[in-house]
Design a protein that fits this description.
The protein is α/β, with parallel strands linked by helices. The protein has helices at residues 14-24, 45-60, 79-92, 107-119, 130-136, 154-166, 215-226, 241-250, 274-282, 297-303, 307-317, 328-342, 553-559, and strands at 32-35, 64-69, 100-102, 123-126, 175-178, 193-197, 211-213, 230-234, 258-262, 265-267, 324-326, 345-346, 348-349, 352-357, 365-371, 381-387, 389-393, 413-416, 421-429, 435-442, 460-461, 463-465, 470-477, 501-509, 521-524, 528-532, 541-548. The structure holds adenosine-5'-triphosphate and magnesium ion.
Length: 567
């Protein structure tokens, strides 16, 4: 397990308390956990919590954590997802070592155990059509009713189950059910389905099988086979625990794992459901699983979120028994806090407005010294070119500044960062009345950004020299959904945020950014943290905004404004 993943230490939570107690009482001598994704989609930040918990706990107690693919439904599962999941777990900083498993590794054993249940009179083949079976299971207020096939003889059940396996029946014709209790208060104990017929090739077992175990029949037994001691899963599996325990008790399994449930991570303005995320990808609402707006680990990586920030975030959220929705600001805080210490500062003008320095030689240029990271002296300095024509940020200038606007305006003097003081002398407009250029003068005595006479300015602007700056596309991201708690049961597509991506194609960045590489964050001064997009090319730079310097989206939403006034 990567030791860097142990950063910031563990939390204290009820899971760790349980493990402490198990060890103290001698119930366990080692701790074995597992992360059990179904390969039917990419991992999202909710999974990061489960990964961090399972791998983290194993690491803290000197045990081990398995990566086990819950690959029991070949209709929905794909090799692409298996590969992506492995890549993302590693990227997050965790390693299963030699402990890579698949539920499909156990298909033979699970099948034998199913026959064993049949022989013990604890499972039967049911021919009821799915809809009828559903109705007869009853509801929370109404007990279920026994299937007319429930009392088949062992011989008949064995014969039918073997013929199911041999491929004699079409999909859906029959299932194998556990014989437990149709009037149980727990719906999961009302003769749950253990095997269904699926004539589908499996990514690993090919066409060997045409019947597949259900999640419930595969999961606990897989844990037991692997010697998992603590089977940690999210709260929705709490009602499955009695079935998990029933199967463990009624089968000759080699060990007895215990299941514990914790609250899922829910994040504001975000959907963490593979079903919905698949819908977004397949429907073309986002540009793939790694679209930087997606809450997938692949999307967050492309957006420039470092894995350590994700680990820090899930550690801060902690592990609890009660469901809640975590404010996205908390995630952004973890990202900013980390990037502030490591990201080199650069200057980029997102929405350029040209300024001309009238008293600077038209063909002149010079290099000025800029600090790479004020938080890290070792990061050193760099040179940035200055010249006669420059770009500044369009919204750093107002022709008629209201009270409280301290940035650039006619007749006003401001500092160009690391360069000079400049005064706006004239505003040039086009025929439509739009400001297209500012004519300015500079004070040569203020080189580096300070006036020898001690006079002060109210604002410091970032800028880029027109002759040297590199054109770039800069993509700004806002939450994918308009509401803090998107309704995944409703018209989820209708809740997509039309402003989730804003693409700025006229941006200019300082020459040092020509050597930017994907995965290495930079801070664009006064703007936020950015990262080169992997699809960027030297001739066409694309930067993704990881996170703004401040939380502006909440304010945009609160005021309905398109942009926020703040220097
Ligand atoms: P989804 O609902 O997104 O499809 P899932 O639970 O079906 O998720 P799995 O691949 O089965 O996805 O999940 C693997 C593990 O990750 C499970 O143990 C599950 O409990 C855990 N997990 C999934 N989503 C979250 C979440 N939002 N927070 C914490 N753990 C999660
Ligand atoms: Mg699941």
């Amino acid at each position: 397990m990567a030791s860097e993943a142990a950063d910031a230490g563990a939390g204290r939570d009820f899971i760790r308390d349980i493990i402490d107690a198990d060890i103290a009482a001698g119930r366990n001598t080692e701790v074995v956990t597992r992360f059990p994704p179904e390969p039917n989609g990419y991992l999202h930040i909710g999974h990061a919590k489960a990964i961090w918990l399972n791998f983290g706990v194993a690491q803290e107690y000197g045990g081990r954590c398995h990566l086990r693919f819950d690959d029991t439904n070949p209709i929905k599962e794909e090799q692409e997802y298996i590969d992506a999941i492995k890549r993302d777990v590693h990227w997050l900083g965790f390693d299963w070592g030699t402990h890579l498993y698949h539920a499909s590794d156990y298909f033979d054993r699970l099948y034998d155990w199913a026959e064993q249940l049949i022989r013990a009179g604890k499972a039967y083949v049911d021919d009821l059509p799915a809809e009828e079976m559903r109705v007869m299971r009853g509801s929370l207020t109404e007990p279920g009713r026994n299937s007319p096939y429930r009392d088949r003889t062992v011989a008949e059940n064995l014969d039918l189950f073997r013929r199911m396996r041999a491929g004699e029946f079409p999909n859906g014709a029959r299932v194998l059910r556990a014989k437990i209790e149709m009037s149980s208060g727990n719906m999961n104990l009302r003769d749950p389905v253990l095997y269904r017929i699926l004539h589908a090739a499996h990514p690993r077992s090919g066409t060997t099988w045409c019947i597949y175990p259900t999640y419930d029949f595969a999961h606990g037994q897989s844990d037991a086979i692997e010697g998992v001691t603590h089977s940690l899963c999210s709260l929705e599996f709490e009602d499955h625990r009695p079935l998990y325990d029933w199967l463990i008790e009624n089968l000759p399994v080699p060990s007895r794992p215990q299941q514990y449930e914790f609250a899922r991570l829910n994040l504001g303005y975000t959907v963490l459901s593979k079903r919905v995320l698949t819908q977004l990808v397949r429907g073309g609402h986002v540009k793939g699983w790694d679209d930087p707006r997606m809450p997938t680990l692949a999307g967050l990586r492309r957006r420039g979120v470092p894995p350590a920030a994700i680990r820090d975030f899930v550690r801060r959220v902690g592990v609890a028994r009660a469901n809640s929705v975590v404010d996205i600001a908390m995630f952004e805080h973890s990202i900013r806090e980390l990037l502030n210490t490591i990201a080199p500062r650069r200057m980029a003008v997102l929405r350029p407005l040209k300024i001309r320095i009238d008293n600077y030689p038209a063909d002149g240029s010079e290099e000025l010294i800029a600090i790479n990271n004020p938080e890290d002296a070792a990061a050193g300095t760099r040179r940035i070119p200055f010249g006669h024509e420059l770009f500044i940020e369009r919204d750093d200038f107002l022709e008629d500044p209201p009270k409280g606007f301290y940035r650039f305006a006619p007749g006003r003097e401001v500092r160009l960062r690391y360069a000079y003081f400049v005064i706006c002398r004239e505003v040039v407009k086009n025929s439509a009345g739009e400001v297209v250029e500012l004519v300015c003068t500079y004070d040569p005595a203020t080189r580096g950004g300070n006036a020898p006479d001690g006079r002060r300015v109210q604002a410091t602007l970032h800028w880029a020299a027109a002759a040297h700056a590199i054109p770039a596309e800069i993509r700004l991201y806002n939450p994918l959904f308009t509401r803090p708690e998107p309704d995944i049961g409703g018209d989820i597509i209708g809740e997509l945020n039309p402003m989730s991506l804003e693409s700025l194609t006229e941006s200019r960045v300082e020459p040092a950014l020509a050597t930017a590489i994907p995965g290495e964050s930079v801070q664009f001064e006064r703007q936020g943290y950015f990262c080169l997009d992997p699809l960027s090319t030297p001739g066409r730079l694309i930067f993704n905004r990881t996170v703004a310097l401040r939380d502006s989206w909440t304010k945009v939403r609160a005021t309905g404004a398109q942009s926020v006034e703040k220097s």
